[in-house]
Amino acid sequence: MPELYIGLMSGTSLDGIDAALVDFQDNETHLVEFEYLPYSDEIQSTIQKISKPESLISLKEYGAMDAQLGRLFAKAVNALLAKAAIPTSSVKAIGSHGQTIYHAPDIRFPFSLQIGDPNIIAETTGITTVADFRRRDIAAKGQGAPLVPAFHQAVFQHPNEHRCIVNIGGIANITVLPRNQSAEVIGFDTGPGNTLMDLWIKLHRNLPYDKNGAWGKTGKIDHDLVTLLKQDAYFNAAPPKSTGKEYFSLPWIYQYFDAFSYKAEDVQASLCFLTAITICDAVKKHAPATERILICGGGIHNDYLLELIQQNIDCPVESAERYGIHPDHVEAVAFAWLARQTMNNLPGNLKEVTGALDSVILGGIYQVNKKGGSPVAR
Ligand SMILES: Nc1ncnc2c1ncn2[C@@H]1O[C@H](COP(=O)(O)OP(=O)(O)OP(=O)(O)O)[C@@H](O)[C@H]1O
Ligand SMILES: CC(=O)N[C@H]1[C@@H]2OC[C@@H](O2)[C@@H](O)[C@@H]1O[C@H](C)C(=O)O
């Protein structure tokens, strides 16, 4: 019998909502349908405004965005179900990551904040919703991120091949999967994924990203500049570690060099190289035995970035698609999987990855009373 879950992911790139309908029958992971709902320019700029470290937005604006995103997530679910022609009642639960607006795992009172009210998702869709995955791990003294390594382990680990999964979203993170299934999994955020490149091309060409890396490729990499940027303490810190766009931002670039005294395309090429080399250095340092790298996340579409990664690593670098899941779908499928873990009373974090004291059951469950009447939230 099918065992259907929905995963909702809206990542740090702020491009929109990924919704995946996944069947876990017989413990397999099978993507049934996928839907993407882009954010409007208005939503994008409000989220950007709320997420700024120095943001002084009103509580009213914050609360309204939480509610508006809850509705948008529900809309994505309903569009997904209509596309798949599957009734609501067939879906066991939704796993909603929410929109990260601030991630601060290393301050005195650590927190990670994702918004998009799950009460609204449950009420509007009529499907039990699991949300707020990161804060339980932080409560257990973990980083709250990355959470996807447990899923990577479940679907990509191979007994005859030491693999490393590299997700290149706004931020990049790796999961090291040794052949030995009982060996410890390593995983952490390596630093910027597409975020610095996206910010730079937005500033100079008013484009959301450098399509296929074409603009960056016209520039010349400044290796001295990359060496300078690589000295940032984040790259040299030992895991567990996680980061966000609050840290890797335009001010981060400006603190290191006078960016406007360089040719804009040379800076783009250098930021692309920085992204590639910090990923490769992380793999070489923490997973020297890696035999194959599988790439997921939007960075797969940046040909120049992929070229630079392949040039700086000895093993084959391939798309996750050849190994079962399209790179653009991996994170949404992972949140369907994490919701299933929670619904089955199983932990979702890998404590060796996040640094939590224990494996914990992640998220809050917003239940729906299937017999009708009001859903019960807890
Ligand atoms: N054709 C393309 N060429 C170059 N880059 C692309 C292309 N398509 C997508 N991207 C990059 O992928 C990004 C989106 O990636 P993705 O959806 O994996 O990020 P995310 O899930 O929002 O981030 P995170 O994993 O950090 O939460 C875009 O912002 C862009 O930089
Ligand atoms: C706080 C937050 O939203 N972190 C994201 C971000 O995007 C990539 C990287 O930084 C990763 O740590 C995480 O996302 C994935 C889904 C994770 O938790 O594994």
Automatic annotation (TrEMBL):
Catalytic activity: 1,6-anhydro-N-acetyl-beta-muramate + ATP + H2O = N-acetyl-D-muramate 6-phosphate + ADP + H(+)
Taxonomy, superkingdom: Bacteria
Signal peptide span: none
GO terms (BP aspect): 1,6-anhydro-N-acetyl-beta-muramic acid catabolic process; amino sugar metabolic process; peptidoglycan turnover
EC number: 2.7.1.170
Pathway(s) where this gene product acts: Cell wall biogenesis; peptidoglycan recycling; Amino-sugar metabolism; 1,6-anhydro-N-acetylmuramate degradation
Protein role: Catalyzes the specific phosphorylation of 1,6-anhydro-N-acetylmuramic acid (anhMurNAc) with the simultaneous cleavage of the 1,6-anhydro ring, generating MurNAc-6-P. Is required for the utilization of anhMurNAc either imported from the medium or derived from its own cell wall murein, and thus plays a role in cell wall recycling.
Name listed for the protein in its UniProt record: Anhydro-N-acetylmuramic acid kinase
Gene that specifies this protein: anmK
